[in-house]
């Protein structure tokens, strides 16, 4: 029977294969329904007429999950490698990998291999089932499969998600012997939106109309009409254009099988190109897809947004595979093929937007060893679920897939300088940690970290390396050197000790090692807004992590298509201004400042005429950075433009903001600014000045009708057994007496600093307007104080460790609560004593342990 190609259904009654599967399931033969005579006849008829067929229920659910787990184990234990492209008829020519074109990881097995961490229980069974089916189909009348003489090993495949795909291709483009492709899917939990569908392209004969006589070989010119279909778009979301382009609209053929469209052929005389049918097949668990391997069935794998598992077998035509393997390529043929592949790589870059550097290798025979061409450099070994690739020739990028919902704060990156090992901590990794030996010449200070949320969550770590030097010219006479000793095992995880120049700048135990050579990433500039238009800003009120700031910040700069890259030092530094911007948007703080602005007297504006945004008749909000230090807050002021981000993220009404950096540890006249006490303009809406004095002395000069806000970053006043609280107490009392001035404080940890600070403010009778909470914009660097492991500086702590991290927690107070403080008859001296005693009691065992 040769069925009309416009219908894969059975006379409009329904899918005949579905009917047969149901029939034999009711008869108790569900596991082998596809081996029954009438099932074999229907499968063969579809394969011979349409060149491909979908067989559901080929594996049971238990077998599907078992085989999926076996391949996942192989992947996680490093037994799969990036899928290769090209290779020659006999597999003895040049190969290359290019993850933007083919993003899967593959391994070739027959189920007898003894691999670490893998037990092949189900793979041999699945292969025998496929062999049985193909053998039975070969016995059907007029079956092409009668010439099958052998098959390949099983290619076990994982598409790791993250939009991994495989662009349109043909399995047998040059007579390599492949006759039939058998593709077994192992995704029992697959659902719409996970991606990874197989898209099949089939050309029809005829005069360009869809109602053609049958399917034929596809040619490149006809397939060009399908190039408008983005491989990253799932079926149903394609923009197919007008009826002049589409002959038959989308329709469902079976569960998870959809004819996306049939595209008209044509040309000037309606015969230049053939109609092309596009069919999408979902990778449902237990599903087997058979299709002809040659130009009759070009196909691609659409972008996978979740891990996708499969096994592929190829069945070979006896005469063709014998001819393909008869003789190796000559030197001239090999050179011609390498030149062709070079052109192909450039074509892939232009057509598919591929940006990753290809890895090219060659071998002289099918049994020979693969060797690099010398134009690329090896990538470091990474755990199975991770990937590594070179970008721009000298940047190694390591990508770690993350479970849904993972936050930036859940991940960490550091370098063990003693062994040049990159240590990545992230959920989903084995024991939540991965160690990657950095390539020779890696710049350990150039680490950039990005949390990608779309299309799937992943942590991308980039490290710059020295450019690859050209291989030296061999000398005529060489002496064979002994084989190199095996590389030693990577040492256990160690912490990175703080340098001698490190300064204690985040309260208890916190350390940020900043110097004049520290690399603070430059943020893209935001174009000036048009006159009369409202500033856009970044809504941080309900932010959950850094990505909520970074993505919008790049969009404000018109760089939404760029990959934001920030060094750990940048995230440490930005934590200060972005936390301030977040605070300005919190309802308790914003309402307090709005009320203060209403009371501002116009006569006061002249006193602050040169501060803030210089709008005539307005007064800026004066933000006092209390307890500022030349090693942190002032360091950022002198060496970065990060403080400008306050009004970029949180634009203020007319008047702008003036930042006053106040404390005994600032440098009033620095090498960068001889007159730091004088205001300097940071941007059109923000000014700054530095004052070496106490907070109460500075605020005493700020009139009561000027909007005022106090911010203390990582003051540490809750620790120190009460000593720090005693020193801070007079400033805190004076701050609370300014009843219209909100005061925001951050703490580096919750077991000592935050605990003590809350005790201090409760003893003073302060009114909380922002309750204590974890800060979504805390710094990147953690300092480990105690617990399992050695103390030191790391990007993330482990369970059981006590840590400090700049700006880890945040809260805000404003004035005294009703009936507390002075209204309760307490003097300033009594309040200061209460504050010190409260901190002393709260510290207790936590401080003693530190």
From TrEMBL:
Region (Disordered): 356-382, 469-498, 517-539
Coiled coil: none
Compositional bias annotation for Pro residues: 469-491
Biased composition (Basic and acidic residues): 358-374
InterPro entries in the cross-refs: HIF_prolyl_hydroxylases, Mss51-like_C, Oxoglu/Fe-dep_dioxygenase_dom, Pro_4_hyd_alph, Pro_4_hyd_alph_FE2OG_OXY
Molecular functions (GO terms): ferrous iron binding; L-ascorbic acid binding; peptidyl-proline dioxygenase activity
Stretches assigned to the Fe2OG dioxygenase domain: 147-317
Keywords: Dioxygenase, Iron, Metal-binding, Oxidoreductase, Vitamin C
GO biological process: cellular response to hypoxia
Cofactor: L-ascorbate
Pfam family, one: 2OG-FeII_Oxy_3
Protein name per Swiss-Prot or TrEMBL: Fe2OG dioxygenase domain-containing protein
Organism: Micromonas pusilla (Picoplanktonic green alga)
Upper classification of the organism: Eukaryota, Viridiplantae, Chlorophyta, Mamiellophyceae, Mamiellales
